[in-house]
Design brief:
Helices cover 33% and strands 24% of the residues. The protein is α/β, with parallel strands linked by helices.
């Protein structure tokens, strides 16, 4: 079986600091990997290299995805082929609804008119997968940080990702929400998604 993702010899330097030195990571379909280390060890930096936050040319090494060498210049480049990152710092718009946040930038529209009925129906299914019972029209500002994290995960699932990167996803979750997250991860891997945690 071919790896879905390979990172070879990744080296990233900031002024005065070598954050990553010759790092390798291989992810097979349906595998879950935990990247572990102390604060400042380079875990988030590695994931930002992979997702295009740090674009090609700002690091040394090679990224192969589904057998092909890839060069990501933006986050959109990696998202377009199915590599999705959920950052520790949430990127939701507080005064938009859950549905608006999930489909922001990927709205289902015809003739310039957004089909909110379809967006709400899809949002309900995504929220069900992550164990949230909130109405899709609920404003992000009206739910707690743990639930916001689960909305971020629902948004990531909406991209039909093949590799899902979660940067400390449980830090703001309670025990029930952590259980829901692990169930989501297990469900994703049964569909062949590789998870880097």
């Amino acid at each position: 079986m071919q790896p879905i993702l390979e990172m070879k010899g990744i080296t990233k330097t900031f002024p005065g600091v070598k954050a990553l030195t010759d790092v390798n990571l291989t992810v097979m379909p349906a595998e879950i990997h935990g990247v572990v280390g102390e604060n400042g060890a380079g875990k988030s930096t590695l994931m930002k290299v992979l997702s295009g936050v740090y674009p090609v040319g700002t690091y040394d090494g090679v990224i192969r995805y589904e057998g092909q060498e890839r060069q990501f210049r933006t986050i959109s480049d990696s998202e377009d082929i199915g590599i999705i990152i959920i950052h520790q710092e949430l990127a939701l718009v507080p005064l938009l609804s859950i549905a608006e946040n999930i489909f922001l930038g990927q709205e289902t529209a015809k003739n310039g008119i957004i089909n909110w009925f379809e967006a709400f129906a899809k949002t309900r299914k995504l929220l069900e997968k992550v164990g949230l019972k909130e109405h899709p029209n609920t404003l992000i500002t009206n739910i707690g940080t743990g639930k916001q994290q689960l909305v971020e995960i629902a948004k990531a699932i909406s991209f039909n990702s093949k590799v899902l990167i979660m940067d400390e996803p449980t830090s703001a979750l309670n025990a029930t929400e952590v259980g829901n997250l692990f169930a989501v991860i297990e469900d994703l891997t049964t569909n062949g998604v590789g998870v880097v945690y």
